[in-house]
Design brief:
Layout lengths: L7 E3 L4 H10 L4 E3 L5 H6 L7 E4 L9 E4 L3 E5 L4 H6 L1 H6 L1 H8 L4 H6 L2 H5 L12 H7 L27 H7 L3 E6 L2 E6 L21 E7 L6 E8 L10 E9 L7 E9 L6 E2 L12 H13 L11 H21 L1
Length: 330
């Protein structure tokens, strides 16, 4: 049986108190739903002496419409609430789909949107017991100096395996943080680095606390979907995560006005594809096949997650095809 290590729990009442507390306890970790953090503590992937529990901080839960159509989702909003939200389902269906596919029902009721956005990167050489990692000599992500996936000391390629993040990147969402210096905002696409190491994966100041996710006012008629590849239909993290958005010309309902595909669970940073060459073309079977082939050609999964890399690459083409057909026929 894996046991939790000893740590001290702090329960601040305000955002400012939480951030101030973190500045005095630099090894502390913020605790929201705990569905990822607590298992990691059991595996000794992280060894903080202090946890800052956020359950008593007000103003971090809920979905609201702001600025005439934009959405603001509090960081502590449970993933199940995001999946069930009528506003989210109407404005960003892919985000509701993604939130509803995270792990299992119990996880979604405890896990939060903020926690899913800040999810630790994952790798077969890292997400193991302490004894397993010790026998390996650890890895570049933590405690070691070598990436066993790419056989190099240059960078860690542990995968950003959040379900919601590819969707948030595709719709140009923004994350809000509270820092010791005050509020801070950053596009979700700029939040992640190309290196999955513990101290390098996020582009935020140390101790910054995620407070909300903002989705901009999206163009009328923008369609979105999320496709998840995993071994089982529940509980598993994605082996490949694909978010697709498309706007079609209302005059004929088929000409592409905008198109975006973002793939996650592949590298430390989600990959957004430049597909401007397809704008102006009809979203017919031939175009869908060409787009899927483009995604396949530019997708390069690593051996960092379960599943043969070539199979995962093949599934990028398959699921892109399925997603585009679903948007066309919506």
């Amino acid at each position: 049986m894996l046991r939790l290590p000893e740590f001290q729990v702090h329960q601040p009442a305000t955002l400012e108190d939480a951030v101030r507390l973190h500045t005095t306890l630099p090894d502390a970790r913020y605790l929201a739903g705990g569905t990822d953090l607590l298992p990691n503590l059991k595996h000794e992937l992280d060894r903080p002496q202090h946890l800052i529990a956020l359950g008593g901080v007000s103003g971090l839960v809920g979905v609201e419409e702001i600025d005439g159509g934009a959405l603001r989702v509090g960081a502590l909003t449970p993933l199940q609430d995001v999946a069930d939200s009528a506003i989210v389902r109407a404005r960003v269906p892919a985000l509701a789909e993604a939130a509803g596919l995270v792990a299992g029902p119990q996880h979604r009721r405890m896990g939060t949107l903020g926690g899913n956005v800040m999810l630790d990167t994952r790798c077969l050489y890292y997400n193991q017991t302490f004894e397993w990692r010790t026998a390996l000599g650890f890895c570049l992500k933590r405690d070691g100096d070598w990436c066993h996936v790419i056989d190099s000391p240059k960078r860690c390629v542990a995968a950003q395996s959040s379900d919601t993040v590819p969707v948030l990147v595709a719709v140009d969402a923004v994350v809000e943080f509270m820092t010791a210096e005050g509020p801070h905002a950053l596009p979700v696409g700029e939040l992640y680095q190309q290196d999955g190491r513990v101290d390098r994966m996020h582009n935020v100041p140390p101790g910054a606390l995620l407070t909300a996710v903002r989705v901009p006012n999206l163009p009328d008629g923008l369609r979105s979907t999320y496709r998840k590849v995993r071994t089982r239909d529940a509980v598993d993290f994605p082996q490949l995560a694909i978010a697709i958005t498309a706007a079609l010309d209302p005059a004929d309902g088929r000409t592409i006005r905008s198109l975006c595909v973002v793939i996650g669970a592949m590298l430390p940073k989600p990959k957004r594809f430049d597909l401007r060459a397809f704008v102006g073309r009809p979203l017919d079977d031939a175009t869908i096949e060409a787009i899927a082939q483009e995604i396949h050609a530019r997708t390069a999964p690593q051996t960092n997650l379960h599943g043969d890399p070539e199979w995962r690459r093949h599934m990028a083409r398959v699921e892109t095809t399925r997603g585009l057909r679903a948007l066309r026929d919506a």
